[in-house]
């Protein structure tokens, strides 16, 4: 090997590997301005005061870095052999996001590939290694009852605070003290519920006290509320009303047909609704008409509004859970003014969940003009509309009772 070339020492020492690389002397670099090891700045703040600031030189491994200010890094790297550059690359992290991860990582796998990845065999190998590898023994085995480290001891309370707590007493009078001293635990719980001390009892005790059902047995102050068994209600039977036969009875003005219930009947065509609403004004015995969840649309609801205006005996009309728009709901409420017999009208849960301020104000004005309406089933969002409608309906109820 040429005598001018330098090799890396293979001797083991505490010095990092990249610092053991010997380099050739660096030629003199021109056009470099040497920097002083420290800077001295004088600033005159007044006629008699001066401020001096000193900057300490930076150091690395105890050496002053100012000695390397005149060194050209590119010239140093040009002198290194490929093997030396690889050794240096292992010690220095490039921290460059534009480099691929395999070039940024200093780890190099020297093993030869064993073939394509087999995920199933890899998982089996990992599980086998985990089962065969013995657990690391504990440095200090667990001993029951042994306290390790510092045990927390609460600080002693101030004696004066304890004395103040002991002196606190409420004088309720002899009569109340005698009554409370002889009261049972159930009576104390009832008294706490009446006074509104919810945090002193559970839900079962509170509701039992308000409903005067008697306290549950075995609960007491420290009782735990158990889940209440749900009540199982039977499913509603399907509505087996014959639509065509009912429309025929309405047309014939059957005196026995007082209530007509089409609730939850699917697939009623618009033609059937048109036939029903066409003969409805001529009927003089039908009082209750329920059309909940039957798929009413604006087209059929407008026909219903025209039929309501001419009805003479209808008292209850229910069209909840359909596809009626807010403007058509207003027309239905407006039709109630001409039909003075309807006392209850329900039309909530329609296609539009929110009616809007303008629609609610129109409905409120129409309801206030209606003197026969006693109950209204509509969800009104604004407080003004709710209060005005509730007040007017209450006046109609009072007027009807008198």
Search tags:
402 residues, alpha/beta, Leucine-rich repeat, LRR (right-handed beta-alpha superhelix), 5-stranded parallel sheet, two-stranded antiparallel sheet, 37% helix, extended, cytoplasm, TMOD, LRR_dom_sf, Tropomodulin
Task: Produce a short descriptive summary.
The chain is α/β, with parallel strands linked by helices. Among the domains are: 174-225, no CATH class; 243-401, Alpha-Beta Horseshoe (Leucine-rich repeat, LRR (right-handed beta-alpha superhelix)), CATH 3.80.10.10. It is 37% helix and 7% strand.
Structure description:
The chain has 402 residues and is an alpha/beta fold. Among the domains are: 174-225, no CATH class; 243-401, Ribonuclease Inhibitor (Leucine-rich repeat, LRR (right-handed beta-alpha superhelix)), CATH 3.80.10. It is 37% helix and 7% strand. The protein has helices at 73-78, 82-91, 101-104, 119-132, 159-167, 174-181, 185-195, 203-210, 243-251, 270-279, 298-310, 326-338, 357-369, 383-401, and strands at 40-44, 50-54, 59-60, 63-64, 259-261, 288-290, 316-318, 344-346, 375-377. It has a five-stranded parallel sheet with strand order 5-6-7-8-9, with no helix packed on it. A two-stranded antiparallel sheet has the order 1-2. Strands 3-4 form a two-stranded antiparallel ribbon. Helix 12 (326-338) links the parallel strand 7 and strand 8 (344-346). Helix 7 (185-195) packs across helix 8 and helix 13 (357-369) packs parallel to helix 14. It is extended and about 110 Å long. Pfam families: Tropomodulin. Keywords: Cytoplasm, Cytoskeleton. This is Tropomodulin. GO terms for molecular function: tropomyosin binding. It is found in: Cytoplasm, Cytoskeleton.
